[in-house]
Amino acid sequence: MLKLEVMNSEISRPVSRSPSPTFSPLYRQIKDFMIKSLEAGEWRPGDAIPSEAELAGRFNVSQGTVRKAIDEMAAENLLVRRQGKGTFVATHNDPRSYYRFLRLVPDDGDQAHSTSEPLTCDWLEASPEVARVLGIQAGDPVVVMERLLRFGSEPVVLDYIYLVGELFQGLTLERLKASDRSLYSMFESDYGVRMIRAEERLRAVAADAHSASLLGVEDGAALLLVERTTFTYGNKPVEWRRGLYCTRRHHYLNELG
Fold first, then answer.
1. What is the CATH number of the domain that holds 38?
2. pTM (global) more than 0.90
3. Could you tell me if 182 and 174 are in contact, meaning their C-beta atoms sit under 8 angstroms apart?
4. Same domain (yes/no): 234, 113
5. Residue 196 shares a structural domain with residue 245
6. Cα–chain-centroid distance for residue 73?
7. Are residues 75 and 132 in the same domain?
8. Torsion angle of the four alpha carbons 214, 215, 219, 221, in this order, in degrees rounded to the nearest 10
9. Does residue 221 or residue 256 have the better pLDDT?
10. What span, in angstroms and rounded, lies between the C-alpha atoms of 215 and 211?
11. Residue-level pLDDT at 26
């Protein structure tokens, strides 16, 4: 049984002192232990986690401290509270999470169903740029995918996706085409890789001949380039995605606050 070996107000009252630069509140320490349990696979996506009382006993802290840790993890979409049922590990299989990482919205507000069309899937050696973003060595194996995302029948996003190869052994174009799930749901279920958070950078670019042909726009038309680095547990980058967004009938929406 894991016990938390720290001095805190729930266990004792140490002499007051100025906080050190490495000080971490107790609930944050509990949160870190719980994230390690998620990363180790103790609780799988969709599983119910132990009750607050059970976790409080496990870590030798109060339920209030556990509750605060769980609240923060729920706010970060690591856990999901379900009224009357308990707290569960968040999963990409939940339809409510489908558009968490896709911020493109139709101008008319009518969200059409999106479909993913994989175009290519190759195993290559990481270039210095890809290696830098993914935190691997140049020359390490990476999966490089090209896929088209349609809203209804309209092509809207052309993605170039780079994945850390060692995490996605056996991924092929045939396997991608045979799946009827979202990419992140497939990565979670088939490879045990859950996408936790992402960082994005946006800028305007001009369509080249290839992207213009696939997106049905003129060569040189304005597109929105969304560069996304996606992280799994432990703040480990596992995906770099460069998406070309056609915004003739869609816009990028990000809610702040």
1. 1.10.10.10
2. no
3. no
4. yes
5. yes
6. 14
7. no
8. -160
9. 221
10. 6
11. 92
